[in-house]
Amino acid sequence: MDYSDTRLGIKKFASTLKSFDIEFQPFIEEINTKEGVIREFADAATMERIRSMAPHVVLVNKAKSNANIQISKEFFRILRQT
Known about the structure:
By secondary structure, the protein is an all-alpha fold. The protein contains one helix and no strands. The protein is 96% helix and 0% strand. It is rod-shaped and about 100 Å long.
């Protein structure tokens, strides 16, 4: 096999790939579009889940704040006794 045969083989292979690309391009574009829509829905669902957790986070932060206040009061009560 000489160099010209190799070039011919490469051109034929490239031509086949190009026709494959042209033939399936609409399908690829549709898949990319649908992937974008699915990604948007997934992001929205994730954000909704985060939003639904917000009241619980507020309650936990309040409880933590109340616990810190109680610990501080107890610390100063013990400190005054010594």
